[in-house]
Structure formats: structure tokens, C-alpha cells
Amino acid sequence: MPHLFFRQVANVVLVVILPVVIVMALSVGAASAMVVRTWKSHDGVHSIDAEFVECKDGRVSLRKGDGDVISVPVSRLSAEDQAYVIEQTSLGPKKRTFTQLTQASNRLHAATDVLRLYRLFIEDESVPEAEREAAKKQLPIWKERADKQMVRVGIRWVTPAEANDQRLQARQLTDEAIRLIGAGQDNAAIDKCVKASRIDVDSILADFLQGLIYALVRCDAKLANQHLSECVSRDPRSIPALNNLALSEIRLRKYAQALAHWQTAIEVAPSSHQVIQNLGRLLELTKRGRVNIPPSLQRRFADLYAAAAVSANAGKFKDGTGWLYMGYYAPLTDSTDHEKAANSATSHTNTAIIKTGSGTGFVVKSGYVLTNRHVVAGHAAWSVVPSGNKSRELSASLVGVADGDDDDFAVIRCPELTAPPLRFVNETIVPRGTEVMVLGFPGMIPGRMPSLKSTRGTVAGLPDDSYNAYILDAIVNPGNSGGPVCDATGSVLGILYARTAVTEENYGLAVPHSRILQHLKKWIPDYDRLPPSAEVQKWTTVDGIASRSTVLIWIQDTESKPWTRPPAKSKQSETVAPFEDRWCMTCYGRGTVKCRDCQNGTVRAYRKEVKGRNPVSGQIFYWDVPIRVPCKVCHGTGFVRCPDCHHGIEKGLR
Fold first, then answer.
1. How far apart are CA 302 and CA 444, in angstroms?
2. What confidence tens digit (pLDDT) does each residue in 176-189 have?
3. Threshold 0.70, pTM exceeds
4. Which end of the chain is more exposed for a tag (fewer CB within 10 A), N or C?
């Protein structure tokens, strides 16, 4: 799911809404200057003062004050520290290997993208000759796969027809599972989901459904956590999977992991009311002593809740509402019929809609915004936030979507938007080496709305057989999708749509404006291209010109309801939302807890037995023989009624 949806292109890991820096396999020496700084973990729980030594094979070596060197995976560092590593390693010698190329290829799903990656690697003269020769030997294999348009399904490369057959077969099984869930046949539904998950190893739907069954019906947090973890491993930016996984981790008292997953969900969709409700409920239960969270984590949960509530303009969480699981949000099945799907989604007032990601766009005519196809395609609705006015959110409708393989752009209409249009450059293709500025709304701070940022670079490569796009050496991140690429006059030469990652280097890809103009004339009534500016400006001036016309785009999707019945064990009325978890935090729906006065229903007692008799006096001697007798408190069951709930449901939520 989706800061948005960086298409997997070239050696990309173009992640659907990944707001943190992706660091590929690095193999470089340390920068010469050693500086002691504070390093933080990605979840903010741990920190250490240390020197940066080197980054090799995706791990950072840090020297502590006592001289000991520790090794930490780059992915476990905070976004700020990851950016620092990139900055430091860019100063050292560059080394790229065929092994790193293979690792990057394994993250791609289309053979055509892998072929582009290999060609880029082979053409790079900085790569050692032996490494390039190794890549050349594999090139014919990838050419053959690319000619057949093969795609990766798990670890297998198959034709598009085979992949589609597998997806359809898996979807048929999950549809049957949903019907079985509605009929109360949970065991049969789980069997269908297990088969579907094995057939379509890239989809999260089958494991997502199992996670809901185990969490809401079976009250088994461990198995729910297992399946929801699989969902997040397959789609790290799925908001429903992240939220539901965090709830299972709260049940399992894995509070640091839950915090990290909610942080990611808030980065993607700052206004998710389910996540905000869950954070507020957790803090309230902590205040009441029902949940025991370390003070340092409590502060971080409180900070995340405050930031998210302010960003979403949300009020106090609802004390009478339980934990809110989320249903499955996904792009629409038929991505070609966008307007019909959007109208269908918004016509049902009872249908839940959530922001599932964001992207960037820029004004090309008053009320018309150019953005990426992958930002808008297959989603239910869109809204536009003008630059400099975060509190104003304007509704938008889809005008047109390009259908060419390399034409990742579309136009949406927002009549209330008054920002001025940007101009396009005059040249069909600008020369290599042209200095550029890229603007966009990458997500950077958890719980905060993405803010406009600009980066500078040059045109490093021109459209050719490898990439039918400009290759830019400017820093770009998820959320930048759809942003304008401007030259020194403030005119647009292309629209950013993806980024590549060749070892430590990160390139942006942009569709040339010459391929866009013909579509604008077709989609926008009376479109008249403005003449480009001939005057070279200061870059601060270019930023000012472009920023007025660059907008944030929110993506919205509808929530599917796998079942409408309440959980099977529940005494709740049918008015309870199917994804509301009201089970007690103490007993998790059992209604009973272990008796503290006994051990497995019995207590220790003593029975007097004759030990002997005094032969002189005839006095009888007794001794106490230990025995186990049924507990009078629990009547031998080993369990007593839970004091915190009513038949398994939290008090106050009945």
C-alpha cells in the first residue's frame, strides 16, 4: 500500500509509500573525520554516543567511548542517522559488485526492470571490469525473460498469464473464505486462506483475513501476530496490516514493536482515526494501571498520539470504544475504470474511507494538477492540499490517465485550486548535465503532515533503451512522486515518478515533458501552453516560483468488510462494528483468570494418620500427611471470574 507509490523500476526498490531512507548494500570505507554523535534506533527506544567507523554490507560499525566497536544494521537506525550514513559514505571510495547487483535484482518483480538494472550496471565505467563481465554473462537470460514480459512470483519467474492465473485462483479462494467467515465456518475459511497464501505469495489478503480471525474470533494473539507479521513483510506500508499487527503486539506485551508499527502507519496516513483511537486507548489503560509500559515508551506513545491527534484535528479518543482493527484496504481491481469506481465508493455513505497514502502534483492550468499515474490509479478518491495552506483540503476528480508503459502520469481536476500554473521548457530533451531542482512532499516525521521540500542535482542520463526517462542525481524519497523537475529558469522539464538505488547511489527518474504535452491538450479543455521563461534565476527564486504551484495529494481507499457478523464468542449486539475488539485486556475474552489462591484448582492440606502407639502409656501418636484438596475459591476449576470484564468484554464497553 502506499508516501507513495514508488513503482519498482530499474534496480529500484520503489516502495509503495516508504517514508524512510532505503539504504541498499553498501561497501565503502569510513569518512576520514571521526565525530562522536548520538545514534538512535528506528523506534527511538535506544541511543548511544559513538563514532562512525564504516558501512559495509548494510551494517554500520560504530566505535563507543571505551573503544569497543559494535555493528548495527542500517535499517535499524533512525531516518536521520541513515541520512548521515549516506552522507558519510558518499565521501569515500565507491565499490560495486555483481553480488550487490544480484541482491538488488531480487527486490524487483518485472524482468524488464531487472534488464534495465543490468544494462545500467554494465554501462557504468566505475564498476570493475570483472564485475561487469559477470553481469554480461547473465544478460542473455534477462533479455529472454524481458522479451516474454516475465514477472516474479515469490522466487519463480513466470509469464504474465501464469501470474494472473495464480492471482485469480488465490482471489477465488479468499472470496470463498470471506463467505465462510460470514457463515461462521472459521475453520474452513482458514483452510482456504492457507491455500491462497501459498499460491499468491505476494498478496497479503489471505494472511490478513487469518489475522482478523485469530484476533477477533479465536482470541489468539500469537497466531494473529504470526499472520499479520507475514502481511507486513510482504507489504511494509499497508496501514491496516501495520495497525492490526501493533494491536496483536500490545496483547503480547511487545510494546516497542507496536510503537514502531504505529509510527510507520502514522507516517503513511497521519489522520487514521483507528490508529489515533488505539493510541489514546493504550495511554488511558496505562494510566489506569491495566497496561504496564516502561516510562520511556509511555512518553513516546504520548508524543505520537499528540502529534497524530493534532495533525488530524481529532478530539479525545472515545472511552466507550474498544480497540479498532482495520479492514482490508486495497486498490480497485479494475484500475482502468477510475471514475466509475470512485463514484461507486463515495456513493455509499456507510462505506469507510481512509487516507492510504500521499503523493505530489503541480498545477499545469488553473484547477488542473499533473501527477503520477501510480499515485491516482485504482483508488477511490483524492484530495489536494495547496502549498502553504495545510488546513485546507480540496476535493479532486480524475480527468485522464496515460496508458503507455513508460508514461507514468495523470491529471486530476480541482476547481477550487487557485495556484498559478508552471511553465514547461522549450527543448524537446534537455542536455545531459543540466542543473535541476526537484520539489515534492516526502513524509519525514511520524504523525506530521508531509511538508514541501526541494533538492538539487543534475540530469545524469537521457532517455534511451535502458530508461525511457531522465536520470537525475538529486535526492528523492517516497512522497516525491509526481513532483516537478525544474531547470534554472523555473520551467518544468519533467515529472518525477520513481527512484533507483544502485548500491549506495540513489537516482531519480522523470518522464520528459515532451511526452506529457500531447496528453494535456487532449485532456484539458482549451489547454494553452505558457511560453517558457528565458531568464536564469537564483535557485531560491526557482524554489519560490515552483513551490506556489506544487501541491500535496492525499489518496483515499474504501474499506472492505470481510464479515458483518460480530465475533462468534461475543455477547455484543449486532450494532458493534465487526472490527472493534472489546475483549478484556486481562483475560482476552475468556471471562476467567487463574485463581491466585490455588495451584491448578487444588490447595495444600494435611490429613492426620496414626504413626504409632506408646507401649507403656498407650498414647497414640499422629503425623500430618500432606495432600491436595479442591480449592474453595475456584471450586477446583483453577479459574475465577475476571474482575476487569463482564463475560470477556471490558467493563464500560458493554
1. 19
2. 988 888 788 889 99
3. no
4. C
